[in-house]
């Protein structure tokens, strides 16, 4: 579905206080103050621009460009060494952003990726990142990234959190000239949200990357240490005036789909079983700031398979969400500034909906309402799953899932909020399960953040020890960094629409960083020293875990990084722990130490990867590990191979074992809108060999064709692995906009 971002604006429609110098007067298009803050005047064009990357229209000769970029890396605050020119224009239908990027050595320009929505291309390519705060709230906005051969990303920046799964409809083209490369983009007014009224005031910033120099520069200055997110620092974005928005119009998207599958499952005695289905998604803008999404008979067969992991701990693994319906506007439902699967629980983890015991559970339908009402962000979600009959084992009953979230902006960069989740059928006991909580995020100055929450769960038969809270202070400065945290999770805290790694903990964490930029070492960007202490007790004050670590790293000017880390750990095992087949760690306390060496290769290399080697004691014995992750071999901008490999050799008194995890993703990109990828993975611990082959073609904006082949095999038998499951899937959808 085409996503729409709703961010705050005062419901009374009062004029905002402008940040920066007074707006420029025609014919000028930019004004700056002594600190580099900028005000920009947008220009109306009489006829639509032709989006071809050529910059031949009268706009580019009759209107002066905007320039004056300053460096973020490596020489903070110094003028950019390569000139970038910007034009900001509009008509009744589109906002037009155009760029002329000068290169003193064009042949050294780096472009390794052509595919759309690839998260890592920002680290290894010459590119532009455009930030647009269309509500001028100085907190949130839209992000667009384009490299020199047309690869593109788009996303939402909600405070400090970035969601790269926002996919609006917009047009772009890149071109070349003797001294560099160009970009033109057209962003339809109906593809995003902005404040009511004809006269608009927006925030705007641009970051340019010259990768062969590893130089980052921005249109308006931001604090040091922002790196690749520099343009998204909304509080210091340039002010844009002069945009005249069209009158509000009906905004309705309808997206039906049809799917056919051919499935073989040896465990369920299925062979080439043919099935077909259909469903529909609807998006409707209830108001300028509030959007409703409805889905009927949702299907996610086209989603790429999870990347497998080896688990040598007693706790559950966290896998990221990949299903489009749950990715859109997901940050609306984030709580307590907790986003991953660490010790702090995630109160809403969308993979609890439609996935159970590793199986896909049918989703009958549901809806979501998200948006802004004045200074409030609101989110409502309700999904109903169907029963799943299994040929072996008890059926999985359907359930209803509900989430309600509200957050209010306070001060200049802070917010407070509340959340409630509900699951009609608990997995832990008869009856339902619910959770509720309040949270606050307080940001001061440029680098000081305080994050806190309190939450409680309700499960049938449980009346106590069911709360959790966290208080965290974070100062991520460029030269110094400090993080202090106190976390409590009670024994019976049970968020069944969320993710809980481990209950019954009282955790205290302190981390301190010193990262100077040595002026006398021209090849070194930063030296980094980190010391941390992590201390965990249970509810009876028993020490469950303790970790002390120290890291020293060198970050080079060419983006390579080397590091050495020493860790001293202790862990108490309260019950026998099956760490591998035939190997069980008995009850008791275990202390161990290890050393880790790591090398992170700069991503713009033709062949790049992150390598690590670890050795040390481990429970009752020792462990040696090697891994190569985030590997990438860019044969051409259209063909890439991404290999990964890890091995753990563990020798314990209870037994020895070795795990291997190997995989590779091969991608062939025909255009930014059409690609084929194959993900092949081998996991010795699971004794599986799997393949996920996907063809995706966005044959018109917002409409897609998917062809998918999945294959999983059992490696326990000698010879060629035996087939377990296989599926061939064809899915097509079509977007209709009204």
> Helicity level, as a percent range?
under 10%
Mean pLDDT: 90
Distance between termini? 13 Å
What is the CATH fold-level name of the domain at 30-244?
Immunoglobulin-like
CATH architecture type of the domain at 30-244: Sandwich
Give the strand content: over 45%
Low-confidence sequence ranges: 1-13
Q: Say how many strands there are.
A: 44
Structure classification = mainly beta
Count of individual helical segments: 3
**Tell me, what is the CATH class of the domain at 30-244?**
Mainly Beta
Biggest sheet statistics = 24 strands, antiparallel, barrel
Cα gyration radius (Å): 26 Å
Shape: globular
Name some characteristics of this structure:
738 residues; Immunoglobulin-like; 24-stranded antiparallel barrel; ten-stranded mixed sheet; globular
Kindly describe this structure.
There is one protein chain. A hairpin with a 3-residue loop joins strand 5 (about 85-90) and strand 6 (about 95-100). The protein has 3 helices and 44 strands. It has about 750 residues and is mostly beta strands. About 0% of the residues lie in helices and about 55% in strands. The protein has a 24-stranded antiparallel beta barrel. Strands 1, 2, 4, 7, 8, 9, 10, 13, 14 and 15 form a 10-stranded mixed beta sheet that branches. A 5-stranded mixed beta sheet has the order 3-5-6-12-11, with no helix packed on it. The protein has a domain at about 30-245: Immunoglobulin-like (Sandwich), CATH 2.60.40.1190.
């Amino acid at each position: 579905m085409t996503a729409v971002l709703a961010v705050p604006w005062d419901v009374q429609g009062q004029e905002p206080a402008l940040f920066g110098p007074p707006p420029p007067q025609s014919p000028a298009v930019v004004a700056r103050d002594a600190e580099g803050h900028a005000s920009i005047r947008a220009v109306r064009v009489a006829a639509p621009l032709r989006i071809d990357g050529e910059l031949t229209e009268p706009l580019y000769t009759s209107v002066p460009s905007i320039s004056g970029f300053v460096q973020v890396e490596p020489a903070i605050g110094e003028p950019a060494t390569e000139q970038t020119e910007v034009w900001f224009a509009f008509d009744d239908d589109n906002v037009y952003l155009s760029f002329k990027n000068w290169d003193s050595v064009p042949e050294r320009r780096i472009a390794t990726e052509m595919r759309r929505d690839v998260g890592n291309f920002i680290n290894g390519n010459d590119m532009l990142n455009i930030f647009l705060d269309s509500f001028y709230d100085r907190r949130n906005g839209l992000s667009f990234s384009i490299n020199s051969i047309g690869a593109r990303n788009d996303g939402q920046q909600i405070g400090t959190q970035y969601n790269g799964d926002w996919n609006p409809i917009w047009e772009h083209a890149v071109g070349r000239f003797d001294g560099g490369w160009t970009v033109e983009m057209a962003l339809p007014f109906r593809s995003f949200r902005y404040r009511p009224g004809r006269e608009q005031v927006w925030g705007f910033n641009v970051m340019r990357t010259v990768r062969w120099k590893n130089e980052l520069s921005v249109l308006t200055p931001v604090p040091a240490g922002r790196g690749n997110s520099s343009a998204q620092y909304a509080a210091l974005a340039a002010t844009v005036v002069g945009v005249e928005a069209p009158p509000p119009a009906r905004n309705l998207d309808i997206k039906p789909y049809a799917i056919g599958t051919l499935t073989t499952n040896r465990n369920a005695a299925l062979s080439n079983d043919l099935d077909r289905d259909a469903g529909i998604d609807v998006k409707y803008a209830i108001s300028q700031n509030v959007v409703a999404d409805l889905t009927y008979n949702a299907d996610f067969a086209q989603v790429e398979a999870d990347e497998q992991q080896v688990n040598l701990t007693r706790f559950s693994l966290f896998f990221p969400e990949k299903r489009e319906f749950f990715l859109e506007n997901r940050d609306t439902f984030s709580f307590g500034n907790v986003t991953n699967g660490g010790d702090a629980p995630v109160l809403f983890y969308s993979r609890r909906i439609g996935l159970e015991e590793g199986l896909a559970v049918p989703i009958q339908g549901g809806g979501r309402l998200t948006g802004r009402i004045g200074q409030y962000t609101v989110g409502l979600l309700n999904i109903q799953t169907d029963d799943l009959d299994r040929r072996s084992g008890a059926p999985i009953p359907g359930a209803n899932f509900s989430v309600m979230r509200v957050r209010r902006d306070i001060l200049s960069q802070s917010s407070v909020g509340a959340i409630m989740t509900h699951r009609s059928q608990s997995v832990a006991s008869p009856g339902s399960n619910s959770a509720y909580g309040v949270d606050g995020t307080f940001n001061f100055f440029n680098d000081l953040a305080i994050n806190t929450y309190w939450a409680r769960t309700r499960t049938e038969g449980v009346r106590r020890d069911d709360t959790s809270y966290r208080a965290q202070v974070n100062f991520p400065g460029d030269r110094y960094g400090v993080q202090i945290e106190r976390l409590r999770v009670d024994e019976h805290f049970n968020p069944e629409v969320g993710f809980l790694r481990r209950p019954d903990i009282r955790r205290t964490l302190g981390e301190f960083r010193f990262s100077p930029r040595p002026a006398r070492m021209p090849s070194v960007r930063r030296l980094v020293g980190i010391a941390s202490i992590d201390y965990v007790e249970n509810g009876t004050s028993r020490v469950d875990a303790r970790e002390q670590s120290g890291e020293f790293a060198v970050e080079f000017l060419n983006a390579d990084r080397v590091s050495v880390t020493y860790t001293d750990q202790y862990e108490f095992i309260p019950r026998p722990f099956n760490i591998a087949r035939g190997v069980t760690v008995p009850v008791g306390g275990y202390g161990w130490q290890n050393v880790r060496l790591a090398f992170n290769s700069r991503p713009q290399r033709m062949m790049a990867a992150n390598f690590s080697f670890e050795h040390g004691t481990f429970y009752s014995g020792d462990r040696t590990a090697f891994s190569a992750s985030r590997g990438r071999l860019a044969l051409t901008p259209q063909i890439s191979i991404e290999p990964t490999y890890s091995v753990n050799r563990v020798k314990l008194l209870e037994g020895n074992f070795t795990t291997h995890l190997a995989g590779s993703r091969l991608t062939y990109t025909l255009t930014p809108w059409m690609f084929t990828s194959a993900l092949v993975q081998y996991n010795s611990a699971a004794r599986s060999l799997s393949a996920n082959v996907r063809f995706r073609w966005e044959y018109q904006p917002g409409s897609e064709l998917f062809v998918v082949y999945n294959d999983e095999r059992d490696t326990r038998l000698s010879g060629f692995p035996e087939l377990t499951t296989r599926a061939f899937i064809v899915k097509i959808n079509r977007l209709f906009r009204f």
